[in-house]
Amino acid sequence: MTRHFLDIHRLCAEDLRAILDDAHARKKARLGKPKGWVDADAPARDRVLAMVFEKNSTRTRFSFDAAIRQLGGASIIANAGDMQLGRGEPVEDTARVLSRMVDAVMIRANDHEDVERFARVATVPVINGLTDRSHPCQILADIMTIEEFRGPIAGKTIAWVGDGNNVCHSFMHAAPKLGFHLQVACPAEYHPDLRDLAIGGNHVTLTSDPAEAVRGADVVVTDTWVSMGDQDYEARLDAFEGYTVDDGLMDQAQGDAVFLHCLPAHRGEEVTDAVIDGPRSLIWDEAENRIHAQKAVLAWCFAG
Q1: Are the beta carbons of 159 and 183 closer than 8 angstroms?
Q2: Going by C-beta distance under 8 Å and a sequence separation of 6 or more, which residues neighbour residue 63?
Q3: How far apart are CA 254 and CA 260, in angstroms?
Q4: Catalytic amino acids?
Q5: pLDDT per residue as tens digits for the range 226-259
Q6: pTM (two decimals)
Q7: Residue 254 burial by CB count (10 A; 0-12/13-18/19+): exposed, middle or buried?
Q8: How far is 147 from 20, CA to CA, in rounded Å?
Q9: 8 A C-beta contact, residue 74 and residue 68
Q10: What is the set of domains in the chain, with CATH numbers?
Q11: Is the sign of the CA dihedral 25, 257, 290, 63 positive or negative?
């Protein structure tokens, strides 16, 4: 059976834990090695990953390219606008064609349903590299980073401050699987999708008060208030007044709390320079861990 990685809530807790453990192990095994060194087991040897981008990308593009190379494979990168997909070719036809040409496909898409449609007919693994609904690869990297610096994720409290967006949704998906609690603070008009809130169940608390969400948290996370495609910049700036993560807000969390941001950051809006560049920030480790987390995802997909 073909293994797709579309959303965290679709994986069983055991598979999710195995992927995270593999990510940790792969990172440790290549300590001190050059970036192009291939992992000893090379689970992607002779395999090709197609990467299809409908949205601009830095971290997703570089981290997936590095990941497949470090696993012993190769990549083909295309922007959707350069493909027939960008001229109206059905998603299903593109999926059938690419399934004959590559061994896996990573898609960074505007519409989550397009990735679902692609996966329904693809005969090779399909990986969600980001959609308007979710960002599962980012959350694996975030959880990996938390565990590196603060130990097992189970029992931890994570505070999300800001837009109830795709990254927030994926945190909600992971909470019941891995046994942590997510405290979300957002304005009412920018709350998370209720379907994703339901998936989180009693592992998620929703409030409009950032201080309430952050109080006692082990980790504080935020993201840009205006995502690619959002047309309501000024309205969002007004709505998110008071949601900036600054030192005062961080001080409401646990004394050893850490800060995460998936980047790119709008410094001075959702986070201050003092926090993002300060000693509690783990953003550079978080960014690097996209490589290791995605290597583990690819290895899991290929083992199916």
Answers
A1: yes
A2: 287, 290, 291, 294
A3: 14
A4: 108, 135, 138, 223, 262, 290
A5: 876 677 889 999 999 999 999 999 999 999 999 9
A6: 0.97
A7: middle
A8: 10
A9: yes
A10: 8-135+290-303 (3.40.50.1370), 137-286 (3.40.50.1370)
A11: negative
